[in-house]
Each structure stands twice: as structure tokens, then as C-alpha cells.
Amino acid sequence: MKKLTVVLFVALLGLALAVPASALEHEFGGYWRVRMYHTSGFSGQDDYDENTPGYDEDLDGKQLADTRTRLYYTAIINENLKFVNKFEMDAVWGDSSSYGDIGADAVAVEVKNTYVDFNYGPANIQLGTQGQVIHRGLMFDDDFSGVTFGVAGLTGMYMKVEENGNSSGDDDQVYHLNYAIGSDTFKITPNLTYDDQPGGDSMWFAGLDVDGNAGALGYWGTFIYQGGEQGDDDRSAYLVDVGVTLAVTDAFEINVEGFYATGDDDATDGDLNAFESIPGRSYYWSEIMGLGVFDDYTSNASPGDYITNIMAANLGASMDVTEKLTLSADLWYAQLAEDDANGNKDLGTEIDLSAAYTIIEGMRLHAVAAYLFAGDATTGGVENDADPFEIGAQFSISF
Fold it and tell me: Are the C-beta atoms of residues 132 and 145 closer than 8 Å to each other?
């Protein structure tokens, strides 16, 4: 894979140099960040050690710094055809498996996207390895190899999930359609998604996104029903996520959100009631339970960015103190939709505080402090419980 990446990169440079400048325009861009953070007690236990079943030292506590760089290159061949490429380089400081250690000469370039974006008649088509979002990330927010087309409000996608997905050689592939209806002040988007899985299994989803605003009030919602089959079991599950934002003044905003995703109340009844999703789902919410800025892992028992078997509510606010400084605060409460094996549900109440500051034009500092008053589902109901917390800072630029 590393050799393939180098060959592809050299080929792109060759393309850029070989085509006459008059026939080709170039766009370059990118993103860079450095994060430094400390976490503690994500296991929910204060003496979590190697003798504890399921021990994971990262859940006990972690501190590190890491770097991510993304470089974008687009060849604009003409007004109807673009060749888009995105590359990524990640390293943990001091990690010998990446360029983060002394010497910093590791081969660590990854291909994020490489696709053609072209117009054919009234339709726009993206063909290749690309990134897309379905249902705000509750269904999908990732990169995939396949095709996306859009025409007059209608969007369709084909995703190849896995080639020869099981011993019988069956593939896993996803088909998706959505149609946006409305205006800038009110829009509804019906969605249909079908996951044709190996072995004759399947998942299908019928969903609706709603987006609207009325003056200072903005609102949105996502509603998804899931059906399908896995072996002899039938799927029946759903997810609801709604939110409201209110601009009290030009500098002060309040936000409210709540979501619910079903869990499975009986693993033996032949009905699969836990909401699942196609591979590639990613919906960040709180800092500790929902991944947030420092997204290596979540507190114990939380589904993280995979919204299933959970109900959660949020009250937050943000204020632009100056042109350069924004302060934010969020209060989250979450519990499992169905009891865990020990009869516990409560994940806890989390407080997230953050500050975003523009250090110099183009460069931003994001500082975060978060604390989770852990519930019984997070701690496992043990007496030696602990409350998870997290502090950190991130420097970033985009260009």
C-alpha cells in the first residue's frame, strides 16, 4: 500500500507537469493540526489494572501529542471535469511506527480521496474514492469507493463495502437515494438506503431529514426506521434526533439537542431491535461519551459516535466574547435505551467547556475541559468508581 501511494503521488505530479498550463488549472489546499491532551478514568473505575477483566490501559488514563496533516490537490481540466485528490499523514509524537520519532523519516502517506468530478448533461457525477455524509453522520460520514450522482435535488450513491465478503464470495454493497425538497428556510429530504450484505443478510432504512429556520430560530431533525434480516432474525429498529438553535443576540447562541436510538431488549426472541447502521457511521456529540475533539476512545459503555441503544439530551450555549475568542459550554445527560447485563442504564452527566481563539490570522487554538459524573453503566456498578475527565488543546490551520 505504501508503494502504491508513492507511485500515485508521482503520477499526479507527472500529470501536473505534463499538461500545458493553458489547458489545466491547479487548486491546492489542506488542513493541519497538533493536539495535546490528558485523559483519566475513562474505565469508570479508580483501580482499573491489568488484573481487571477486559483491561485496556487507555481507558485508565492517557496523555499524548499528535499531528495530522491533510494535503489536497485538484486538477481542473475544464469547466465540466475535475480530478480531486486528498492525502493524509498522521503521527503520534515519539511513536516509532510513524514519523513522530527521532529522524522523522517514516513512509506515512495515506490516500483519503481520489476521484473524478464531472458534469454530464444536467447531472453531476463523482466516480472513485470519495467522502460523503448521510443523515448528518448518524448513518454515514466517511470515505468509500463508488459513485455519487446528483441532478435536480436527487442524489444517489453506490458504495462498495467489501469484495467477496464471506466464504461464498458474496459482496457487501450499499445503495442510497435522497431527494431534497424545499428552500433555504424549510427543507425536507427523504432518504432510502439498502445494504446488500454477504450470506443473504440485508439492512434497509427509510429516513427523513428536516431543516428549517425562522428568524433567530433554527431547527432540524432526523428520523430513521430500520428493517431487514440477519439469518432467521428480523430487524426492526429506529433512531430519532432533533435539535434547536436560538440566536439570542448576534454574539450569543443557545442550542438544545436530544436523540434516541433503540436497543435490543431480548437477544433470544428472534427480533433484532438495536439500531445499527451501514459501515462508516460517525456522529460526534459530547467530548467524553461522544468522542469530541480528542477522539481516540470513549468512556466505558458509551457507544461513542455509533448511535445505538442510547438516549441523550444536551443544553449548550456559545458566546463570541471578541472577534477572536468564542467560549462554549455544554451539559449532556445520557443513558442506555436498554439495561446492560448488570441491569444498569445510567451513563452519566457530562459538562464540556471549550474556548476557541484565533492566535494569528489563519491559525486557531481550541482548548477543552470535560468532566463526566459517571453513572452505574459507566462504572459497572462497582464501589471503587471514578469520574472520567479530559483536558487538552488543539492548534489548527486550514488553507
Answer: no
Q: Are 110 and 49 in contact (CB under 8 A)?
A: no
At residue 250, φ and ψ (nearest 5 deg) are: -65, -20
For 17, the enclosing helix (H) or strand (E) is: helix 2-18
Give the pairing type, strands 325-335 and 154-162: unpaired
Q: Say if strands 140-151 and 252-261 run parallel, antiparallel, or are unpaired.
A: unpaired
Q: Is the dihedral of CA 3, 148, 202, 225 positive or negative?
A: positive
Quote the DSSP letter at residue 135: G
Type of residue at 261: A
- 191-232 pLDDT tens trace: 999 999 998 999 999 999 999 999 999 999 999 999 999 999
Calculate mean pLDDT across residues 355-380: 97
Tell me the domains of the chain and their CATH numbers: 38-57+115-398 (2.40.160.100)
Q: What are 254-292's pLDDT values in tens digits?
A: 999 999 999 999 988 989 999 999 999 999 999 999 999
Residue identified by cell 448513518 is: 139
* pTM, rounded to two decimals: 0.91
Cα 188 off chain centre by: 22
Grid coordinates given for 185 = 428556510
